[in-house]
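[worker-b] picked up task from shared queue
[worker-b] task type: protein-ligand structure
[worker-b] ligand name resolved to adenosine-5'-triphosphate; SMILES cross-checked against name lookup, match
[worker-b] sequence length check passed
[worker-b] input payload:
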Amino acid sequence: MAGNVSSLGLEVPKSFIPQAGRGKGSFVDAAPRRIRDYFKRYKWAFGFGIACLIITQGFTLWVPRLLKQATDGIVDGEIDQVKQAAMGMVAAALFGALARIASRIFIFNSGRDVEHDLRHDLFAHLERQGQNFFDQMPQGQVMSRMVNDLTQVRLLLGPGLLNITNAVLVYSVVLPLLLYTDWELTLWALMPLPAIILMGRVTGGKLFTYNREAQERLGELSTRVQENLSGTMTVRAYVQEASEEKRFQEQSDKYLDVNIKLARLRGFMFPSMGLAGSLSSVIILWMGGHRIASGAMTVGGFVEFSAYLAALTWPTAALGWIISLWQRGKAAMERVNQIFTAEPNLQNGSQVSSQGEGHIELRDLSYSYPGNELPTLKGITTEIKPGETVVIVGRTGCGKSTLLKLLARLLPVQSEQMYFDGKDVNKLTLGSVRETISYAPRDAFLFSRTIAENVAFGAPESSESRVSEALEMAAFDTEVAAFPEGFNTVVGERGITLSGGQRQRTTLARAFLVERPVLILDDTLSAVDTETETEILGSLRKTQQKQTLIMATHRLACAAQADRILVLDQGELVEQGNEAELLALDGIYAQMYRRQRREQDLEDEQLRERAV
Ligand SMILES: Nc1ncnc2c1ncn2[C@@H]1O[C@H](COP(=O)(O)OP(=O)(O)OP(=O)(O)O)[C@@H](O)[C@H]1O
Ligand SMILES: [Mg+2]
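[worker-b] inference finished, payload out:
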């Protein structure tokens, strides 16, 4: 049983876990393409950096020539030649260093610029995603993509790019020089190269897979930490600290395992590639020694040749590191791309709702959550006129919140099923529809800011008196005034320092303040007592005569005032009409009504008895 429960909500969806053989596909191809697009934005800075790199290498590769000159000068006793060479070396070191610094500044800074742009665009993309996206990707995974994966991309574009360019440059310049100096010795020196290339190819793929797995595991760890932080109370209340610790430990072990695999692979790769460089030196020392002895080569020529070969040592030794950076950056970019390629599933039309009155028509509206077999809403047809008060009732899980989320344009609607002011909502811009509506859900979300800032969230430029008015309408003004700092009191993370009812009334005030034609309340008054609820609804009807009010509730008492009551049952609209009509119908509503009346009577009786 416990196994079943643990595999429920908290696990990362399968689709985000790397699978064997998923190495290629449009995703992977798209990732480097996206890097290239960002790269293009900074092509001048990158280009200048690379130009500086070429200059650096020019100076560096001048040194072996000077060394030859100096050595030959020493052997021949030509002191002037030695002096000249020494001065040349000083100049090469100085200018080479300046160019090297400039190349690093330009390339590294551009890498950071790309990282910054990517992060910004990623955030903007997240802001456009609908609820369905977040139902599928846990917050920890999103966070780890925003932080860790982007860092890897930056490392690829900064140090990675610098070293890749460096390697290409050095090889393409030094190799011809070596061949020109002594082609036979060069071929001997390059003997270990095929082995290095083969090793790079074999380990490269593994590096990619391990890196991607490590990044996934880190995302899972972040998700667990984040869920435990937000669910601290629940974990304590059910005394699950030890088992949560155990689960964390298990995930942490998995992360460790894959990192150890990575470390082993890198530990094998880096030194063996370095070894190849040393092997070349040994070979040419042996072969070169013979040539000098036989008079086929001067000592200066040998020094020059060795110096060129030494220039190849670092790029060759760094090859393993470069491959690793590349594979890590590619894996990270692929994960980042999973966010970019998730199309916001809410259709954003091009028309603007002109009247903005909030006339709503539903024509055979149905909705299914992705992955659910049965539809949550089925064939709902109704019309809500501007200024109407509509109350939606029905058993828990019948689809009230789903309907309200569809109305608030938080879930996608199929075409020709919902009309706003006579236009298909899918043809209207999301912004223009949402600006007609203010929506307050039951689970109030507050930002860790002041009460006033939370209330004015939808219209930050509102005056203090507007905030006070909104709080008064939400029947929260007197309580707020009693707080030490009034409405400038900071509410703590997610409003932790407020009670449930206080949080709800803050969100309610937030919805009141924006004064939009349609007000949607999803059980927003569930945590306040009946009297406060009546007070709030009364003041709402008094001041906002023209506003359309659509609310879902479990309390039928407030349905009495409604122009129309919609009764949902298993996703279907089974009854509609005002209270008197529905009671006369003697259907589901009448049943629910009688049950609540009986409960209320019983409660009243108990209260009276206690009073006596
Ligand atoms: N994000 C989701 N993904 C999949 N199924 C969902 C999702 N949200 C809700 N459902 C399912 O849709 C159905 C209707 O849920 P909904 O929240 O609309 O009910 P409700 O009438 O508001 O219930 P309550 O009175 O308890 O608030 C339920 O069976 C629920 O399991
Ligand atoms: Mg609900």
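[worker-b] attaching auto-annotations
[worker-b] The radius of gyration is 35 Å.
[worker-b] releasing lock
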